[in-house]
């Protein structure tokens, strides 16, 4: 419940004036708690509230205020278009938008003032009410509201604190959006849970990361690829304890360049909105490109049975970090689970003999069945990215009369031919995993978290 989730914040832990910093604007945990207490009193009794999740101190205050009040919080992307915003507000039933704009589709709005102060509310969270309602990306239809329990967040953060040796002595640095699990749950609530100092850089530029002086850094692959293109900035991260990459697969060349420039191998982890983080490389364990580690404490994973073998299959997860369902969608919730209650991630994975997980793509777009073989798009993408001329790569399976599906690669590259790339992959992987066609683009279409939007590629 809320008391447990925010125990570090409310338990009199050591404070400092710059405990939290957002784009250079600082506040102490006492400041945060006082302002969040004012928010909690204002929204007490609401069914749910939305928060315009800008990368600011106001967002942290609003979210913590919701948690203190026991009111489910709906993070609203600040750049959401009118259709998306209207859907999230109506679907969630949010009664108020904290930090919202007057045009928020008829829902009342209220400013958030970090200077306000109020005592903590007496009530604690109802364990049957979610802490957060996070919306999916909507790649298979309208975004769905994912109900995240308080206890799931606590289990996730405590598990990561254990495997990453994350303590109050750390300074966490990131510049990620605050409407996703990565930036909000891990990047804000994680700092509050562990008691570590938080520096949010505003934008995740190489220069901002280099200047922050952190011990623990979070980034998505796009952030890390930009950092390695600025060697001077990258070298300034050499004093950090952990560099963590997530939200998408980190290309092997970026992994190796980070190691060369900083002297340490990055840590990768795996999770989803519905599961939070379930698998992670350990701070004291082996770190290998393409491997996302082992399950967090209390979490179990398995690979679904596959008809034709091939060593890969859909990853299924069970454990304390899972969501409690999709808001108002019992049929979708049921379809997302197996008969014995495991969550179907929709991601294709393989398990190494030591229990380390490899995520090779999404079942809907990244499991390619070609000529009787099952091929993970991610493995082919990593092989392409190993070629020095390739900057970006995305692989899909397109319909083919003879093969069922043929492997087609979309790349951003210079000074290399289609045949050279096909032969390069055939020389690195099994021949049947080579692309049959390569298409050259100026840039891959990506979403806000830097993931390639493969559905947009198929018509190119």
**In terms of structural class, how would the helical and strand content be classed?**
alpha/beta
Please identify which CATH superfamily of the largest domain we are dealing with: ANL, N-terminal domain
CATH class of the largest domain equals: Alpha Beta
Number of domains: 2
> Taking strands numbered 1, 2, ... along the chain, how are they ordered across the largest sheet?
2-1-10-9-11-12-13-14-15
Please report the number of helical segments: 14
Strand content: 25-35%
Average of per-residue pLDDT values: 89
Task: Please give the number of β-strands.
Answer: 25
The appropriate CATH architecture of the largest domain is: 3-Layer(aba) Sandwich
Q: What's the Cα radius of gyration?
A: 22 Å
Query: What helical percentage do the residues reach?
Result: 25-40%
User: How far apart are the first and last residues' alpha carbons, in Å?
Assistant: 49 Å
What is the fold named in CATH at topology level of the largest domain? Answer: Rossmann fold
| Low-pLDDT residue spans | none
Q: Sheet bearing the most strands, described?
A: 9 strands, mixed
Structural features, described:
With 460 residues, the chain is α/β, with parallel strands linked by helices. It has 2 domains: 1-363, 3-Layer(aba) Sandwich (Rossmann fold), CATH 3.40.50.12780; 367-456, GMP Synthetase, Chain A, domain 3. It is 29% helix and 25% strand. The protein has 14 helices and 25 strands. The protein has helices spanning 2-5, 7-10, 29-43, 57-69, 82-92, 150-164, 181-194, 206-212, 221-228, 231-235, 252-262, 330-335, 377-385, 418-428; strands at residues 20-22, 25-27, 49-52, 73-76, 96-98, 108-110, 132-135, 145-148, 171-174, 197-200, 216-219, 242-245, 267-272, 276-280, 294-295, 300-303, 313-318, 325-326, 343-351, 357-362, 367-370, 373-376, 390-400, 404-413, 437-440. The strands form 6 sheets. It has a 9-stranded mixed sheet. It has a 4-stranded parallel sheet with strand order 4-3-5-6, with helices on both faces. Strands 16-17-19-20 form a 4-stranded antiparallel sheet. A hairpin with a 5-residue loop joins strand 19 and strand 20 (357-362). Helix 3 (29-43) packs across helix 4, helix 6 (150-164) packs across helix 7 (181-194) and helix 9 (221-228) packs across helix 11 (252-262). The chain is globular. The model has no long low-confidence stretch (mean pLDDT 89).
């Amino acid at each position: 419940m809320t008391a447990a989730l925010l125990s570090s914040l409310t338990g009199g832990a050591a404070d400092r004036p710059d405990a939290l910093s957002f784009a250079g604007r600082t506040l102490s945990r006492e400041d945060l708690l006082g302002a969040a207490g004012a928010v909690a009193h204002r929204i007490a009794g609401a069914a749910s509230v939305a928060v315009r999740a800008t990368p600011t101190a106001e967002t942290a205050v609003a979210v913590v205020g919701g948690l203190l009040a026991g009111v489910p919080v709906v993070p609203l992307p600040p750049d959401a278009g009118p259709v998306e915003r209207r859907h999230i507000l109506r679907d969630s039933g949010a009664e108020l938008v904290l930090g919202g704009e007057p045009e928020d589709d008829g829902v009342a709005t209220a400013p958030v003032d970090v200077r306000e102060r109020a005592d903590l509310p007496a009530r604690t969270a109802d364990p049957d009410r979610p802490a957060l309602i996070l919306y999916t990306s909507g790649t298979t239809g309208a975004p769905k509201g994912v109900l995240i329990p308080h206890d799931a967040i606590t289990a996730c953060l405590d598990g990561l604190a254990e495997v990453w040796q994350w303590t109050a002595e750390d300074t966490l640095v990131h510049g990620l959006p605050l409407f996703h699990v990565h930036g909000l749950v891990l990047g804000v609530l994680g700092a509050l849970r562990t008691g570590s100092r938080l520096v949010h850089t505003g934008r995740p530029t190489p220069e901002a990361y280099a200047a922050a002086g952190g011990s623990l850094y979070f980034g998505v692959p796009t952030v890390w690829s930009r950092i390695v293109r600025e060697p001077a900035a990258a070298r300034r991260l050499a004093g950090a304890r952990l560099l963590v990459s997530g939200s998408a697969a980190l290309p092997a060349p970026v992994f190796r360049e980070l190691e060369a420039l900083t002297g340490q191998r990055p840590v990768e982890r795996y999770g989803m909105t519905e599961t939070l983080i379930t698998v992670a490389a350990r701070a004291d364990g082996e770190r290998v490109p393409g491997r996302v580690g082992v399950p967090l404490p209390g979490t179990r994973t398995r690979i679904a049975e596959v008809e034709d073998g091939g060593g890969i299959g859909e990853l299924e997860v069970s454990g304390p970090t899972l969501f409690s369902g999709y808001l108002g969608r019992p049929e979708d919730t049921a379809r997302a689970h197996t008969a014995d209650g495991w969550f179907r991630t929709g991601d294709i994975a393989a398990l190494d003999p030591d229990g380390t997980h490899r995520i090779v793509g999404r079942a809907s777009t990244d499991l390619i069945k070609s000529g009787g073989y099952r091929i993970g798009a991610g493995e082919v993408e990593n092989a392409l990215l190993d070629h020095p001329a390739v900057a970006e790569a995305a692989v899909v399976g397109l319909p083919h009369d003879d093969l069922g599906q043929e492997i087609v690669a979309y790349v951003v590259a210079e000074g290399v031919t289609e045949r050279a790339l096909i032969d390069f992959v055939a020389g690195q992987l099994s021949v049947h995993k080579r692309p049959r066609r390569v298409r050259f683009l100026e840039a891959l279409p990506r979403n806000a978290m830097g993931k390639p939007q493969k559905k947009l590629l198929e018509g190119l």
